[in-house]
Structures are given as C-alpha cells and as structure tokens.
Amino acid sequence: MTSPDPYSFVFKGLLAEEALDKAGRSALRQTDDVRLGGLEGVLALSYLDDEFRVPAREMSVVYTAIAAFENSVRSLVKKVLIEEYKADWWAKGVSEGIRKKAESRQQEEQTIKWHANRGDDPMCFIDFGQLNSIIASNWKLFENLLRRQTWVQHIFDTMERSRNVIMHSGELPDEDIERIGTNLRDWMKQTGG
C-alpha cells in the first residue's frame, strides 16, 4: 500500500479553501474578525488577566449558540402564534401573567433614555423559560411540529441550566457544551431551522 502524496493532499486543501473564499466565506470571516478586533480594543480586553479573559472568550462561543437558539425559538413561537391568531397573537397566545411581566419590562426600559433597549417586539422581553410555557399553553398549535411536550420540556430544562451558568459568567465543561450542541441540533432538525 502506498502512502498518500502530501503535496496532493495540501493542494486539494488549498483548492477547497479557494472555493470557499470564492463563495464568500473569507469576506464574511474577515469582516467578523475586523469587527471583533475593534470591539476588543474598545472594551480594553488586553487589560484583563488571561486567567479570566481566555475562559470568558471560550464561553462567548457557547453564549453565541445559546443566544441564537433562544432568539430562533422566540421567532418560531411568534410565527406560529401569528399564523393562528393574526393581529391578536399577543393577547390570545400569551398568558396574562407573561404579558404583564414583559410589558412592565418594556415600559421600564423605555424610561432609561441613555441606554439602548431590547426593541419594540414584546417577545424580546419574555424570559427563556416562559417560551416553553407559551408553547405548552398553545400545544395544539405546536404539536405537529414538536411532537412531544416532554421532549420540548427536556430541551428547555437542559438549555436553561446551561444558559444560566453562561449568563452569570460561569464556565461549562466540555460535556455540557456537547449537550448544548446535541440539543440545539435536535431542535433545529425537528423544527426545520
């Protein structure tokens, strides 16, 4: 058996990289890298000890996954409620307790003029766990898509536990990070996301 030609292997890798770059990958990555580098300067990250900065940077990737998941769920929930209840989606699809808490947060943020707020969408003011409550209380609308409430509850319980660690500046071990990835993939495959 002959060993593979290393030059051929490297050449194929370079061709693959070039194809990805032509498809727009490098421009996007370069833009992200420039933006992130600029943010690091503005935030004076270089002044912080590596002991704290390096693990936080690693967890920032985990935060990205959790935040993107959470916002995709918000979008899905709102879309399903609008399909069913049209303009009355907020009043008919969201319980009074959740609505009042979200509206109170939204009003409070509007009084703080010196800082950006979450936006105009009331869904932005709902707690992560409340999304599951909205799904459960409107289960007939979500059943065909999500199939089993126990599965949805499990996904939310697991993701929220990890979310709370990350949101309070904690660190997750690899096994918990892998669990997030598995749950995120399962959810996205099930919902067609």
Summarize it.
This protein is mostly helical. The chain has helices spanning 6-22, 25-42, 50-85, 89-93, 96-111, 128-137, 139-146, 149-167, 174-191. It is 76% helix and 0% strand.
Assess the beta-strand content as a share of residues. under 5%
In the predicted model, the low-confidence regions spanning at least 5 consecutive residues are none
Shape: globular
Largest sheet: none
Give the SSE string: HHHHHHHHH
The percentage helix is over 70%
Report how far the terminal alpha carbons are from each other. 44 Å
The radius of gyration is 22 Å
Count of structural domains: 2
Number of H- or I-type helical stretches: 9
Summed over residues and divided by their number, the pLDDT gives a mean of 89
- Class derived from helix and strand content: mainly alpha
- Per DSSP E runs of 2 or more residues, the count of β-strands stands at 0
Structure description:
It is a single chain. α3 packs antiparallel against α8 (149-167), α3 runs parallel beside α9 and α6 (128-137) packs across α7 (139-146). By secondary structure, the protein is an all-alpha fold. Helices cover 76% and strands 0% of the residues. The chain has two domains: 1-47; 49-191, no CATH class. The protein is built from nine helices and no strands. The protein has helices at residues 6-22, 25-42, 50-85, 89-93, 96-111, 128-137, 139-146, 149-167, 174-191.
What are the main properties of this structure?
single chain, 193 residues, mainly alpha, 76% helix, globular
Which helices and strands, and how do they pair?
Blueprint: H1 6-22, H2 25-42, H3 50-85, H4 89-93, H5 96-111, H6 128-137, H7 139-146, H8 149-167, H9 174-191
Helix pairs in contact: 3-6, 3-8, 3-9, 6-7, 6-8, 8-9
